[in-house]
Specification:
With about 130 residues, the protein is an all-alpha fold. Helix content is about 60%, strand content about 0%. It has a domain at about 50-115. It has four helices and no strands.
Length: about 130
C-alpha cells in the first residue's frame, strides 16, 4: 500500500520472459539452474503473469470440488491425493490452453496487419505545417 509520501510510478514495470534459453541437455542441471533464478518477488507478482491467475483459480476450484466429492466415499488421504492431482492437471491444462489462445490471437492480429495496405505520407498531400 502506498503512503502519500511515496510517489506513484508513471509506468508500470514490464515483465520480461526468456523464450530462447540455452539448456545444458541434462534435465537435473537445467532444473537446478532454473530454481536458482526464482525469488520470492516472483511469487508476489504471480497475478501479473499472463494466464496464471485464471489457471490457478480454475485448478483450485476443481481440486476442491473433486476432493470434497471423493472425500465422501474415501479416506481423507485418498481424497487429498485426488484433490492435489486434479489441481495440477486442471491448472496446467487451462494454462496451456490459455497460452495457445493468446498465441493464436497474436497470429491473427499479425495476419490482419500484414494484409492491410501500407500507408505512407507523400509530398504535397497537405500534411506539412503551413506558415500563415
Amino acid at each position: 500500500m502506498e503512503t502519500p509520501s511515496t510517489p506513484k510510478s508513471a509506468t508500470p514495470k514490464k515483465l520480461v520472459y526468456a523464450e530462447n534459453v540455452e539448456t545444458s541437455g541434462d534435465t537435473w542441471t537445467d532444473i537446478h539452474e532454473a530454481t536458482k533464478r526464482l525469488s520470492f518477488s516472483d511469487f508476489s507478482r504471480i497475478g501479473e503473469m499472463p494466464c496464471v491467475r485464471s489457471s490457478l483459480l480454475t485448478g483450485i476450484a476443481s481440486g476442491v470440488g473433486v476432493g470434497v466429492i471423493r472425500g465422501v466415499s474415501a479416506r481423507p488421504f485418498v481424497a487429498s491425493n485426488w484433490a492435489v492431482y486434479t489441481f495440477l492437471v486442471i491448472s496446467t491444462g487451462s494454462w496451456i490452453l490459455c497460452q495457445k489462445a493468446k498465441r493464436d490471437e497474436f497470429a491473427r492480429i499479425h495476419r490482419v496487419m500484414d494484409s492491410l495496405p501500407a500507408r505512407t505520407l507523400k509530398k504535397g498531400d497537405g500534411m506539412e505545417p503551413q506558415n500563415d
